[in-house]
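User: Hey, my collaborator sent me this sequence without any context and asked if I could get a structure. I don't really work with proteins. Can you help?
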Amino acid sequence: MSESILVILAYLIGSIPTSVWISKHVFNIDIRNYGSGNAGATNTFRILGSKWGSVVMLVDVTKGFISTSLYILIPFYLTNELARTNFMIILGLASIVGHIFPIWAEFKGGKGVATLLGMAIAIQPIVAVLCLVVFALTLLTTRFVSLSSMLAGVAFMVMILFIFNEKETMYRLFAIIVALMVVITHQKNIGRLLKGTENKVPLFKNRNKSQDA
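Assistant: No problem. I've predicted the 3D structure and written it out in structure-token form, which is a compact way to encode the shape of the chain:
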């Protein structure tokens, strides 16, 4: 199987619009018509509650992990660590692009943070777990998913560049891109945080389907 086919497959997996399908089939709404209009875990937490927000986040993380792990279908990458890491980054980025611009949902998706986490777990699980701890602690403390995502993204860059001091140039560049991407895609959230108008997510509250009746 060629690399190009796997990259396309990674994009298609990333394109699975978890929150859109759940909101339509479970609640008879389109999540993109509510809240921030974003089809990601953050807006799902806000609109559908912690149960479905957690489901969306878990599936989106899994999308990134599976897509990034597609390298195992090409034997060459099983024995060449440098080439494997570079190809995994390409596969992961294809999955994130799919999440942001999903072919299955009119190319209107989420911000890719959960899918990015899945990618990080596949490439560097220790760093990913530490970033997840940063995310969880920030979320529990502030209930701002946007702030939690940004701090986790910046933490990823700091750990790759300074704490673990990874030597691979593409990996270091990727870490910088991750931090920039997370901050750039949350510009509106940053504005709302500064104004004090950013919505907090209901961590222990679920949306009742009867609310949509």
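In plain terms: The chain has one domain: 3-201. You can pass these tokens on to your collaborator as they are.
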